[in-house]
Design a protein that fits this description.
It is a single chain. By secondary structure, this protein is mostly helical. The chain is 80% helix and 0% strand. The protein is built from 5 helices and no strands. It has helices spanning 3-6, 19-40, 45-72, 78-101, 105-151. The chain is elongated and about 55 Å long.
Length: 157
């Protein structure tokens, strides 16, 4: 299996411009890469299972943290985003169960690639929506601050 098929390379295109969220995402990308490397290296099933468990645990915490921030930022689509997190969690758990029942390393590789794709799709399709929302909010705030600075007052945005 080629490295490019399983490895996620972090880049600015995956950034949501929120350092604490980007840190979580980078950690999650590293976990997916670690899992897939273990699969490619034909590590034993308990090792791969431990990595899957760790990744799922960290994903659950990250989703909770992200949802707290979305509520704080008053992101209008936060309920839909939380529903996507729930859906993703169910998909991860299903992959985990399928993995537990599989004895063939080829099946493991398919599961690892599936998890990678779920993560990338979520980052690029769902998380970019709130990134764009935050950028618009920030740009609107900058415009207000510039206008009000000319008037001599500064609103809080």
């Amino acid at each position: 299996m080629k490295e490019s098929e399983w490895k996620i390379n972090w880049s600015d295109t995956l950034s949501v411009d929120v350092p604490e969220i980007d840190d979580d995402h980078q950690q999650f990308v590293a976990r997916v890469n670690e899992l897939n490397q273990a699969i490619v290296d034909c590590r034993d099933k308990p090792t791969v299972e431990r990595l899957l468990d760790l990744m799922l645990m960290e994903a659950t915490h990250h989703f909770w943290h992200e949802q707290q921030l979305l509520a704080k930022w008053k992101y209008p689509q936060r309920a839909a985003h939380a529903a996507k997190h729930a859906q993703l969690t169910v998909q991860f758990e299903r992959v985990m169960k399928e993995f537990e029942q599989a004895d063939v390393s080829f099946t493991w590789a398919l599961k690892g690639l599936h998890i990678k794709q779920l993560l990338v799709d979520h980052l690029l399709q769902e998380d970019m929506k709130y990134r764009d929302f935050l950028r618009k909010k920030e740009n609107a705030g900058q415009g207000l601050r510039k206008r009000d600075a000319r008037k001599g007052s500064r609103p809080s945005v």
